[in-house]
């Protein structure tokens, strides 16, 4: 009983300590305003903050001695324009009470002091929300996805707003600095602008069951040509025929290239699927991708690898210059490649491969149950809990999950000749493959979650940056011996495995297939 009472006492002490830590208010420093003011400053009754239930709002106004702040017509106009054009940042005007605020602004000279206070509070409340949304996104990916491991962003909106007000000449610059500055985000904004410049899309879906090859004649070709003209892959013509002519073939190849499809001029399911996307759907796709880019960190480091999963591509970047580009193979929709950020740790030459639980359950055990020689054919050895080898004759399906399955090094190994390790909770890594022919495929959503890299030895050599111990000839010698060897990556190189399906290049819209079917659902959540 004595120990129980002590336990309860200490639990209460710890609980109270945690509660105290949570509720320690931020230190408030009264901001000295620059004079002269435009318009009058009105005292705010602090009880008005209660109805908003917003600590950021309360902290901000206490920093201004509980007085109104939006005396400047210029600043109010800027903020209202930001709300009005929120779509330019992939956001929605309705989320910031734009209509109500715009009406108040029109009659600002007729508002009473009470109404001016209400307007001031409402403008600040919505602007703080807007700052948070442009800085870190409207939604939190951790609330939506289990396989997205991104560090949660935190935005001190009051601090940003106070900084902006402190020197009003820099107000716009301070707010603009909250927006993502990466080149891809800027290309998304350009893509949205390009899309908005296009006329209303009235073309109906095109339905064709067979592949269309050059010189084919069919009535649907007219609709296909119109859609190519709409997307500016084909120049407008006075008359459109049913013939799949050479000019249209080149237009289709260009369309296919922009959509990450095989540029062969053959109109199959993939090309037709992309052609049937209308303007509205593409706009939603771009807005969705802008939201994702707000989730990603603002700083990437001086040197990093970036994998765009739907583009099946890895790039190595140094000081904002792309140094290397590699094709990659990523996870299937069933076994997705996770979204994450991490720092590269080391490379392993001639790696062994321990079969992960999912592959064990779904692939290995069913195959072994049908064919006792399956493990031997894959150079996989099973070990029991004591580390003893389990022969094919002794292997039992009832104990299958208790065994550890290890594939020995070699060109047949599922990881190929090298793997690159980085800390993450998903046990994934970059690696070579024993199916290098897969890099010739257009759709490379084929792995079990890890990222397979084309020409991985060249990438590894680049990452190690060790011309004494690991020049290419030394790496080749290590591989020939088939001994497993670890090599540290000493430079601070970060890896970003991310997901985006739209952007622009040279004023042209670029799209990729949404291989994990994330875009539509995310847009629905955004627009709610």
The coarse silhouette is globular
Work out the strand percent: 5-15%
CATH architecture of the domain at 300-502: Beta Barrel
Instruction: Give the termini separation.
Output: 54 Å
Structural class: alpha+beta
The strand count comes to 18
What composes the largest sheet? Answer: 12 strands, mixed
Q: Helix amount, in percent?
A: 25-40%
What does this entry look like structurally?
It is a single chain. The protein has 18 helices and 18 strands. Among the domains are: 26-179, no CATH class; 300-502, L,D-transpeptidase catalytic domain-like, CATH 2.40.440. Helices cover 39% and strands 14% of the residues. It is α+β, with helices and mostly antiparallel strands. Residues 303-479 form the L,D-TPase catalytic domain. InterPro entries: LD-transpeptidase_YkuD-like, LD_TPept_cat_dom, LD_TPept_scaffold_dom, Peptidoglycan-bd-like, PGBD-like_sf, PGBDSf, Transpep_catalytic_dom. The active site is at residues 431, 450. This is L,D-transpeptidase family protein.
Summary of the model, kept short:
With 528 residues, the chain is of the alpha+beta class. It has 18 helices and 18 strands. The strands form 3 sheets. Strands 1, 2, 3, 4, 5, 6, 11, 12, 13, 14, 15 and 16 form a 12-stranded mixed β-sheet that branches. Strands 7-10-8-9 form a 4-stranded antiparallel β-sheet.
Structure keywords:
528 residues, alpha+beta, four-stranded antiparallel β-sheet, 18 helices, 39% helix, peptidoglycan synthesis, transferase
């Amino acid at each position: 009983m004595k120990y129980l009472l002590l336990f309860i006492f200490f639990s209460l002490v710890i609980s109270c300590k945690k509660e105290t830590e949570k509720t320690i208010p931020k230190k408030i420093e009264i901001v000295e305003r620059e004079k002269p003011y435009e318009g009058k400053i009105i005292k705010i009754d602090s009880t008005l903050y209660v109805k908003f239930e917003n600590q950021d709002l309360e902290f901000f106004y206490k920093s201004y001695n509980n007085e109104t702040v939006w005396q400047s017509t210029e600043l109010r106009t800027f903020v209202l324009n930001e709300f009005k054009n929120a779509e330019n940042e992939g956001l929605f005007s309705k989320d910031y009470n734009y209509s109500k605020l715009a009406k108040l602004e029109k009659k600002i000279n007729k508002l009473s002091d009470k109404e001016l206070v209400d307007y001031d509070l409402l403008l600040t409340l919505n602007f703080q929300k807007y700052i948070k949304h442009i800085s870190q996104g409207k939604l939190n990916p951790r609330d939506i996805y289990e396989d997205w491991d991104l560090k949660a962003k935190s935005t001190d909106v009051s601090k940003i707003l106070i900084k902006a007000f402190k020197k009003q000449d820099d107000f716009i610059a301070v707010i603009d600095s909250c927006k993502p500055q990466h080149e891809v985000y800027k290309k998304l904004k350009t893509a949205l602008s390009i899309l908005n410049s296009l006329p209303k899309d009235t073309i109906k879906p095109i339905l064709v069951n067979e592949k269309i090859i050059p010189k084919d004649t069919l009535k649907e070709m007219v609709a296909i040509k119109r859609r190519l003209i709409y997307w500016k892959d084909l120049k407008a013509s006075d008359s459109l025929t049913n013939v799949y002519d050479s000019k249209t073939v080149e237009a289709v190849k260009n369309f296919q290239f922009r959509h990450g499809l095989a540029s062969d001029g053959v109109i199959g399911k993939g090309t037709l699927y992309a052609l049937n996307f209308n303007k509205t759907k593409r706009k939603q796709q771009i807005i969705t991708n802008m939201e994702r880019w707000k989730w990603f960190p603002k700083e990437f480091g001086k040197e990093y690898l970036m994998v765009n999963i739907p583009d099946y591509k890895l790039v190595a970047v140094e000081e904002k210059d792309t140094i290397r580009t590699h094709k990659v193979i990523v996870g299937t929709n069933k076994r997705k490649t996770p979204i994450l950020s991490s720092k590269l740790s080391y490379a392993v030459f001639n790696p062994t491969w321990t079969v992960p639980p999912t592959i064990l359950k779904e692939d290995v055990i069913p195959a072994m149950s049908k064919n006792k020689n399956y493990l031997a054919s894959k150079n996989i050895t099973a070990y029991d809990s004591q580390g003893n080898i389990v022969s094919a004759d002794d292997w039992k399906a009832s104990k299958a999950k208790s065994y550890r399955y290890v594939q020995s090094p070699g060109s047949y190994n599922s990881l190929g000749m090298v793997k690159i390790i980085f800390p993450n909770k998903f046990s994934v890594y970059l690696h070579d493959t024993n199916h290098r022919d897969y890099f010739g495929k257009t759709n490379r959503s084929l792995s079990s979650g890890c990222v397979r890299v084309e020409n991985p030895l060249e990438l590894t050599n680049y990452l190690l940056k060790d011309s004494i111990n690991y020049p290419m000839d030394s790496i080749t010698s290590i591989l020939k011996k088939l001994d497993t060897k670890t090599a540290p990556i000493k430079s601070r190189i970060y890896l970003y495995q991310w997901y985006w399906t739209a952007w622009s290049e040279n004023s042209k819209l670029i799209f990729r297939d949404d291989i994990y079917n994330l875009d539509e659902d995310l847009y629905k959540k955004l627009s709610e």
